[in-house]
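WP5 quarterly update. Target: TetR family transcriptional regulator. Source organism: Paenibacillus odorifer. Length: 192 aa.
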Amino acid sequence: MVHQEDPRVLRTRQLIREAFRNLLQTKGFDSMTIKDISQKATINRATFYAHYEDKYALLDEFTEQSFHQMIPEQVINAREFSDEICNQLILLTHQYIVDFYQKCRMDSKSIAKLVDEKVKNMLQQIIENIFLKGVNYDIADRQHIKIISAMTGSAIYGAAFSWLIEGEADQTDLLVDIVRPYVMSGLGLLIR
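Structure tokens (predicted):
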């Protein structure tokens, strides 16, 4: 077992993630092997396996870290789901999808499904955390918060993904103008 705070461990994990990012762009996930990642990171395969179970575990961590790095402090510290917070979540979700699909050669349906599910779950968790911290919400129980967060996250993710697929990637202000009123009016009906 590796000690996660050891500078050598952190440096090795960084090398592995950088190699993975580069290979995603140049080779694609399906064609990439552990041998490829290890060679690119200048480590041996045993070292890779000391840090990650397989390339799917690396993808999971890579997706999570990349998404979390994009979240502004204002969203992390939000105590209510306001129009501005909704705008920021729409924009960051859209940007993440654009980055991942265009820059990382998302040519595999299996990886796309994994990444999509991971991002939807992280978005749901962010929204759920905002509701749980909120003082202005009178929601009966945690299960309702989970359901409302899942619906809200799915609406934001679905719209941002569709926006990319439909070729509207440049007009993010229009995306926000369409999605925010829908999300906020839906929440207005559910949260009182």
